[in-house]
Amino acid sequence: MLRSRDTNIIKLTTFILAILCHYQFAFGQVDSDNGLFTADYASGCAPLTVNVSPTEPSEADGFIYEFNGNFAGIVEDESYEYTEPGIYTIAYIKNAGASDPETDFLTITILPAGTSPQFDIFTCKNNEILIDFSRDENFENFTIRYGDGSSPEAVNSPQTQVRHTYSIIPNPINIVVEGNNNTAGDAGNCPTVTEGVNLISGGLTQADFTEVITENYSSSDGRITLNFNLQDNNIYRLYQSTSTNGFSELDTITGTETSRTVTSLNTAANTYCFRVDAYDACDNTFVQSVNACNLRITGQATNAQNQISWVTSTTPLSNLAIYRDGNLFDDVSPATNTGSWNDTDLTCNQDYVYFAETFYAGTNDLNGFSMTSNTVTLTALFNEPLPATSNLIADINIDESISLTWTSPDPKYDYQILKSTNNSKLVPIDRVNVEQYTDEATDLDFINCYSVRTADNCGNFSKNDPVICPTILDGEFIVSSGTADLQWTEYISEEYSVVDYEVQYLDQDYNLLETLYAGQDLSIIEKPVNIVQRAYLRIKILLSDGSIVYSNLVPADLSPAVIHPTAFTPNGDMLNDEITFFGRFISNYNIYLYNRWGEFIKELDNNNPTWNGIVKGEEVESGTYVYVIEGVTETGAPFNQKGSITLIR
């Protein structure tokens, strides 16, 4: 048991803590710093149990374990388990109760669980290997067992490479490597590594390319896949050249690999060549492969032709095969490193997917290899002039839709309809395959103009097609007088002139009753002679080619009524001495006249519709007189009308 701690022990502990802080990152040994104790491990992998033993034990001995900034106390235990990676210090106190005890220290390095040696084994010709430890950061030295019955070999830092030649070749060859620190066996709880090796009994085997595939066309994300046959027990190095600018090493490849994809390439601008060289690490010699370069294609769609261009730096080549939509389409022989090919067997607006494949025709590769390009998608274009339409005319229908008709020199085409509203730009509104069109989305408050151009399925249109603007009739039919006050827009045609504008007065069935005007004017004020109750007004336009088109209709309806002057002057001057009531669309009617006091004074009818201002032989005085009319319309419907007239003497 430890004695009671007194002031000396407290001072000693403080002293030990200071020293521990100094030593906790020092690289330790199996023997303690001053030789007062030993440990079976100074390093190892977690979890690691370290056993310590004083060289001259005394009753007052003690240890402080796992000091890493925290004081854990002095104990007599001579064993401690470290569970977490890190660098620790064991402190030993001899004669702990003495006023001047002896102290000693040992640094313990704990590696993460499962830490094993890191190394590379290279096979060399004539049954020799080279082991390279340069990438290991955890162990000071290594023990190698070559698996051929020879004695284990120790490799000490800073030596990082060791060579070994096999005279007896066991089958298989398994090389075992153990990592150590300080002395052999230290860190012995860390796992060893066993690696199988196939020796090269003779010389190196050249790499045999089978395919070079350009996976995609990209300025930053291009990818090229290399397929090859390698000798299993060889080590190979992969080299890359960009547009013949010289080769640089990319990576080391084991002989068991059959494919490698190189990424982040600019396949849109560059071609790339590759070598896979068999490598002898022992004497740093190589057996070079052939230069295998990728095949890159670009494409351009022109009028009725898709052009494919290719480039590769591989030489010599055999034929070059062109594939379209996944199928072999054509063959170029002999193939050149750069060239182009044209596809004219096309349908417009159809997408075509192309790629090319060529073959190495030299003798430097063992079996030859193919080069497959990226894919290119082109949409076939056909740019050709189309014949313009002609004989375009425009009619406004009864429902105020506008009908267009035209002729085309070739009915195989479609027709695109363009429209302008109030002098705006002509814009497409529809597409048809017949030589007529009706625009139902019209607003006759605006000027509507049209053009029709020929169109095909390849995006081509005719040019300089005629523009036409139908005549729009506006104005009113004055009910009180039955007078037409009309104005209309000019009929605009780039092909025909207007011979005549004819103003037509039509019945309710659109039959012509009367022509009110014929000429070049664009407005009239005219009154039909034979007025009907339901009627319409319309412009008939005669064109220079003999065609006739029409404007919209304006209603000219008149309701049944009794028409009369508003005043008369029965003063004997023979001017306006009487007032007459005229019935319009009324078969029979009676007129009852009343004075301003509401007294009935006179009755008239359709047979006697005139009054001279005399009642019972006496002239009535000036003033306003009210009338009430009762009758029957021409259709037999009851009719009533009230109003007033003014008598002036």
Automatic annotation (TrEMBL):
Protein name (database record): Gliding motility-associated C-terminal domain-containing protein
Any single Pfam family the record assigns to this protein: CHU_C
Residues of the signal peptide: none
Matching SUPFAM superfamilies: PKD domain
NCBIfam families: Bac_Flav_CTERM
Domain of life: Bacteria
Coiled-coil parts of chain: none
